[in-house]
Amino acid sequence: VNEIVWCTSVDGSELLFANRAVEEIYGRTIETLTKDKNYWIDAIHPEDREIFSEHLQRLDSEGRGELDYRIVRPDGEVRWLHDHTQVVYDDDGTALRVGGISTDITEAKVNQQALRESEAVYHSLVESLPLNVLRKNLQGRIVFGNKKYCDSMGKTLDELLGKTDFDLFPADLAKKYT
């Protein structure tokens, strides 16, 4: 299993169970993690501690929750986790323990950031070109036009999105463009 399956006391002070995946993700042995009760909180990235605290407060009221946050391993590597957390209650509604599954989503987060950066570079290049740049989908509908193209058409991008050449030009001219 690549996800951490874990269970703690209601107040989080005692680790009742964690599978071996915790060692790979946190970079520490289960034994170490069990003995150092503060490690779980200390491992949370300083910028994410507030959202983690809010997550714990929501658990008190809602009994379940999900959260993406970062941890810092002993070697300094930062990992992103996605937690599914659930409070376990007895028949009387008394909280007995808290359990969850933590998934390492670091690779997905890194890929998302790389995509955002790539899109920003692409957008910057396309907008700075002194040429009309136009992108259409397979049905011939406009899905993008740079500022130069929009200016040449005398329309905003919102006015052009979804249009075809037949919407913008006389039929004989539109046929030449398709």
What would a concise description of this structure say?
With 178 residues, the chain is an alpha+beta fold. The protein contains nine helices and seven strands; from the N terminus they run ββααααβββαββαααα.
Measured on Cα atoms, how large is the radius of gyration? 26 Å
Low-confidence stretches: none
Count the strands?
Answer: 7
Number of helices: 9
Helix content: 40-55%
Average pLDDT, all residues: 92
Largest sheet: 5 strands, antiparallel
Measured by DSSP, the beta-strand proportion falls in 25-35%
Distance between the termini: 52 Å
Rough outline: elongated
Q: Which strand order spans the largest sheet, edge to edge or round the barrel?
A: 2-1-5-4-3
SS-derived structural category: alpha+beta
What is the element string, with H for helices and E for strands?
EEHHHHEEEHEEHHHH
Task: Describe this structure as you would to a colleague.
The protein is an alpha+beta fold and 178 residues long. It has helices at 21-26, 30-35, 39-42, 49-62, 106-128, 147-153, 157-160, 165-168, 171-177, and strands spanning 4-9, 15-18, 64-72, 78-89, 95-104, 134-136, 142-145. It has a 5-stranded antiparallel sheet with strand order 2-1-5-4-3, with helices on both faces. Strands 6-7 form a two-stranded antiparallel sheet. The radius of gyration is 26 Å and the shape is elongated.
